[in-house]
Amino acid sequence: MLIASYNEKFVTGRTLDAIKGLNYPKESLQVVVADDSSDETRALIDSKVEALESSGITPLVSRRETRDGFKSVALNHAAPFLNGEYVLLLDSDSTVTPNVLSRGLAAFGLDPKMGFVSFRVGQYNRGQSLITRLFALQQDQGDTITKMGSYSLDAPYSFQGIHFDVNTSPTTGWVLDQRFDS
Asked: What are the angstrom distances between the C-alpha of 164 and each of 8, 14, 160?
């Protein structure tokens, strides 16, 4: 797993805690956090990484001296530390469900030409207020329309939320970034 983080102390802990709850052999999991934080998020990540290691997961934190290039460069800097065949790319405000890995890996078995799997973006604060309900509704509708349009036009699909990618090694020079359409 490759997780991008920058000063997100209120959500990063939830993401790293959710990883401990995955229904997948812990000894087969590697978590690389591309952390450009300059606040107390750094200490939080260090603490959560220790907890991941205690649970049998292999963690690593990648930090840079400067934030040149922002998120995409941070991800590219951290990507060489990955050693698995598949990569689950997350933002630090992503929360995964316990079966996300088995569902994602099963999808790769459906088509040997498949290059990535993307999951629907959900909201964990959907019912908090009228604003969050309206935002969730708008995001759900936008996601549906985007997928239908891409499919009907045979157009490239944009990543939405978290996704798997096959680690093919030639990531040098690539810009790893996510595009969120809403």
From this structure: 22, 20, 11
